[in-house]
## 1
Amino acid sequence: MTIRVLIVDDQMMVREGFSVLLNAMEGIEVVGEAVDGRQAIAQVAALRPDVVLMDIRMPEMNGLEATRQIVAADADAKVLVLTTFDLDEYVYQALRAGASGFLLKDASARQLAEGVRVVAAGEALLAPSVTKRLIVEFSKLAQTPRTVDPVGVAELTERETEVLVLIAQGLSNGEIADRLVVAESTIKTHVSRILVKLGLRDRTQAAVFAYETRLVTPA
């Protein structure tokens, strides 16, 4: 299947550059562009893309609010946040709003395409070391750090808690399966149950939950 992508950025050169790069990749098609968050919401409804490449800092409506509204509308599109800054103060909030991950704008064409494929497949873009580091940093910068949530965590089995910790550490399903010496299909089942029990949308929110509740703490 071809992955349909919507590019959201207020800079025309950025939109055109990413469009050229992605359209050159097998199995990826750029189906539209938007110049701000408000237009992005309308384009998601009209075009039904699989992945939205979302800039954060834009006029009219920023990417954070747009991400929040797209996720709240239960759109099928996965949001992959793009940022110029490797410590953008809004990235943490975007992850909490439901973004499935983020990339720096200086990512290579290969990294950009791989990021789109990973997010489209329902995985969180957590594996790269820069992403893992940023999630840790933004968890420390949360305005209201919480201790372990007894209600949410109590819903998880011991094995589900173990899987959640490994998700937060940036491991893929295959890597978790190898670590726990079980089938990858078993890990997929655990991940699905974790998301349902905690009321979370995807692996990214699960990772943020693990850091916020201090199931995982910064090294």
## 2
Amino acid sequence: MSETAQADPVPAAAPEAAPLLEVRDIGKYFGSVIALQGVSTQVAPGQVCCVLGDNGAGKSTLIKILSGVHQQDTGEYLIDGEPIRLANPRAALDRGIATVYQDLAMVPLMPIWRNFFLGSEPTKGRGPLRRLDVAKARDITRRELAGMGIDIRDPDQPVGTLSGGERQSVAIARAVHFGARVLILDEPTSALGVKQAGVVLRYIAQARDRGLAVVFITHNPHHAYPVGDRFVLLKRGRSLGDFAKSEVGLPELTRLMAGGAELEELSHELEREPQA
């Protein structure tokens, strides 16, 4: 190459996706009780934001604000960069914010396809001849679950015969089918064994890879870290930090979650005295 030849310019890094959901210094009070104070984080399409904390940390209050059950008393809640105040859960759904709670809102004795739709079943015919389109409902259920990597044996089997992880996966696929852009998951792995928790984490990754913004509420850093892009730690309603994955490793996340200095002090108390 001649001395005057120019090297090819280095391509600029792709800009990071803008947050789809963001909260800034969110606070909520019930009388004199501080349920949540000064909590900030964000999640973009194709990302997972993990909210970690023990019981009483404020996770449930944050979920209820994000899903429209409560309104924040302080701070800002933004969707697509626009400040909003959600009047109710219907307003959240209209914005594409779907919440999957621990109880899953399923009817165990009903078939999988009925639980997939729950009041929004497809119909055919008009007027007095309108009736449920069972074949279409079954086909959509099977197709949507397959798109999430879920292979069901029979869409007519009662949903109560599924494992806990499989029921979580049906709820996640249902939210995706009905247009969720933000998926809020309330402790989806808390009552599951190791294998079933792994099943749910795989479906969370599937939702992320389909471009959804996922808010994953959990008390288990070992479940959060493999799928998470951001981590918010809550303790007694306050934030201990909002970290990108590049800023915190699993050991540090676990230490913060466990209480750090408090855990070290407890371990000293529990140690046996050396035997003579």
## 3
Amino acid sequence: MGVKKERPYIVYSILGIIALCFIYFILWVIFKDKMPLHEYAYEIANNYDSYAEKAIILIPLLFFVFLFIIVMKPNASKRFLRLQSSLPTSKIHSVAKGVVEIEGNLIMKNPLSSPVKNEECIGYYYTIENISRDSDGKETYSTIHRETQCNVFQMKDDTGVIEVEPEGIELVLLGETNISSHGGKRYKETLIKDGQKMLLVGYADSKNGTPFIRKDDYYRVLGITSSSGITVWNKYQPLLRSFMFTCSIIVLIIIYILVQ
């Protein structure tokens, strides 16, 4: 499987907009009415206090909207969790073609060596983070590299065995197996290993009459998680959703009061 590297496009976009605004302001101070949008800049400069009051209200509102969009933006893990909550668990022997959820123990075929501890595994999710320290010695981390690798494996339940082609697989809600720090960097890996009981969502297909699981083309989902972890998630996720909804309503009410 391919390597995933951190691409902070959103951060670069925000910094670019701030830089453009600053450059425009400098040029406007120098050239005044020769600059495009001169009338608007002149109006803001003459009524700075009024616009500053509006900005105090609008900036938190825009930040809240931006944060909401980021949280709600669909990704492979969110699609996996949404499908998992609505799909029944299929038995491997009777799995039908289409998007399915299966549960069983993993069977390793060709082992991988994990990058942090060199453990034998079926697959791993690996990250490298820069470690920064402030004046008080508090550490902060920023991801500079992320990578998922996984070999073909099988899943087995009490009815049979099925092969999984792992191209595009996501390891969902799995904690780090190993962590190591040295040279100003932190290295973390999450492993899936032979014999683990897992739950998988993907597309059931067949090749020469033999069924197998692959990534779904429509939902773009092939995800795996621990059976015990997903049980806890399904139990508490509705409470988390209600809490987030309540917080959103409260923030909107506060913003409405401030605008009045």
## 4
Amino acid sequence: MDNLQDRPGLGILLRILSGVLFTGMLVCIKAVSDAVPVGQSVFFRSLFALLPIVVFLMIRREFPRGLATRRPLGHALRSGLGAAAMFASFAAVALLPVAEATLLAQLTPVFMAVGGVLLLGEKFSFYRAGAIVLALAGMAVLVLPGLDASAESGQMTGYALGALSALLTAGALLTVRRISRTETAASIAFYFILVSALAGLATLPLGWAALDPKAFGLLVLSGLFGGAAHIAMTLALRYAEASRLAPFEYIALVWPVMADWVLFGIPVSGGFVLALPLMLSGVALAAMEGRRFRHLFQR
């Protein structure tokens, strides 16, 4: 990316905007989660995310030229893992407050640090060890206090799905690190969204809900918000390094907390407040090794 550090202020503003948009996407999904199956939500979110992304790629003159690929199997693996992560994420947000589901997504860089050691032969450093310890401590603080009380509500299932989504996303992004040597960001993003839409469509025989205008509108918005969040993060990482953007993960978690409180009447839990600094400190340690998480926007 050219001029990476020329406009860090703009990069920070775009990172904050991407957090707002991503929260908007999850709010829409949670609002319809009682009536709309996960697969149907994944389909509509992916289908309508294609619109802003294709427009963006056309403006950059990367569509359709940028979709050419020399590694179709690599795209298949990345897109399959990403689609599975989306299914798990949407299932988690149906069971959890938006803030807790978003916090669990922050485990992705930590899982990437572990995956880099196990799968790519990278060095197991002090930073990675610290990231793992802090992330596990944060998970314990979030999950253990409500272990007994959450059994009937499905909260523990939500925690497991949220962690699984972060793990699958980490696997997808590790794949991105391998294929990005020959593949464009446009092709990686486009095929991920296309495969996710097809995976969601494949659940049609399992039974989809009849959508009223409100539910349909929310699903359309979820896709538009998701696609726009992708673009905002892309541009943020063009103008500012990931290390500069990392502190603003705290701000990105303000919006889900506000959404839970204002829209769903869910107060922030004590476990969330205690887990937040632990998990984000782990994310910061994972990022301090200088690895640039340029594709974290592809969720």
